[in-house]
């Protein structure tokens, strides 16, 4: 399978109306990632649970309101907030603000969500209004813009925003001229969303310069690496699906 390399705004447009838009960035067995835009007052689905996959939201702009658990914990998530919801935690979401909200939606593994985006819900791992109240809201991860497990290194700052087994999500701020040599993973997807600065990605035999809003994903066995050419720092959102021990390896460095 080839790498996915997308510039800002690129991807498969699933919906595009004044009220909302959905752009599919990656539809892989291990990870489906979509960029959503919700207009003021836009409501999400009815409260539901997933039994076999993680659902997550990372806010890029505006505010997203997320309700969690049978006790209806309300989270107001602003930019660079992550809400990561494990199986059997009841949830829904909406934009209750007066401005547009833009956020990444993460399903890991896919759980049939890619088919949902294409109009087929028949195989979706989803139960609306379940009779079983499920797990409490406290089982979900909520990492504020400054939250998460912050690990400072000489040439980078790594913040583990969430680690749910099926996916780990990290913010990494790199000093100029940092690099990771091209490599492959046999057992998981390695994906990157550029938050700030410029990053030079190696994908296969190609080298691509990517700015803020760009997305790159390397499925298993796809050669990839990156460097930060400067002149300033670069910040990446890095997703591993499944985690496959990556978060633990970062902690041990």
Topology (elements, then pairings):
Elements: E1 4-6, E2 12-16, E3 20-27, E4 32-38, E5 48-49, E6 54-61, E7 64-68, E8 73-77, E9 82-85, E10 91-94, E11 101-108, H1 113-117, E12 127-128, E13 141-143, E14 149-152, E15 156-163, E16 168-174, E17 179-183, E18 189-196, E19 199-203, E20 206-210, E21 215-218, E22 224-227, E23 234-241, H2 246-252
Antiparallel strand pairs: 1-21, 2-3, 3-4, 4-11, 5-12, 6-9, 6-11, 7-8, 7-10, 9-13, 14-15, 15-16, 16-23, 17-22, 18-21, 18-23, 19-20, 19-22
Task: Provide a concise account of the structure shown.
The chain is mainly beta. The protein contains two helices and 23 strands.
Notes on the structure:
This protein has 253 residues and is mainly beta. The strands form 5 sheets. A 7-stranded antiparallel sheet has the order 1-21-18-23-16-15-14, covered by helices on one side. A hairpin with a 4-residue loop joins β3 (20-27) and β4 (32-38). Helices cover 5% and strands 48% of the residues.
Task: Quickly list its features.
mainly beta, single chain, seven-stranded antiparallel β-sheet, 253 residues
């Amino acid at each position: 399978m080839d790498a996915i390399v997308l510039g800002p705004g690129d991807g498969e447009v699933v919906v595009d109306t004044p009220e909302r838009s959905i752009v599919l960035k990656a539809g892989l067995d291990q990870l489906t990632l979509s960029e959503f835009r919700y207009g003021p007052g836009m409501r999400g689905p009815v409260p539901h649970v997933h039994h076999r996959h993680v659902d997550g939201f990372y806010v890029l702009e505006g505010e997203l309101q997320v309700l969690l658990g049978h006790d209806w914990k309300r989270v107001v998530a602003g930019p660079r907030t992550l809400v990561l919801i494990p199986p059997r935690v009841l949830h829904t979401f909406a934009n209750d603000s007066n401005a547009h909200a833009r956020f990444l939606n993460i399903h890991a593994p896919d759980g049939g969500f890619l088919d949902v985006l294409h109009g087929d819900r028949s195989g979706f791992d989803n139960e609306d209004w379940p009779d079983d109240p499920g797990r409490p809201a406290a089982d979900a991860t909520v990492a504020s813009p400054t939250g998460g497990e912050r690990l400072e290194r000489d040439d980078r700052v790594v913040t583990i925003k969430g680690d749910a087994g099926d996916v780990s999500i990290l913010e990494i701020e790199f000093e100029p001229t940092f690099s990771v040599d091209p490599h492959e993973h046999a057992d998981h997807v390695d994906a990157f969303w550029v938050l700030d600065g410029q990053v030079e990605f190696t994908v296969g035999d190609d080298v691509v310069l990517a700015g803020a809003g760009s997305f790159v994903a390397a499925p298993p066995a796809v050669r990839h690496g990156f460097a930060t050419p400067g002149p300033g720092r670069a910040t990446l959102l890095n997703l591993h699906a499944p985690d496959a021990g990556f978060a633990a390896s970062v902690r041990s460095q």
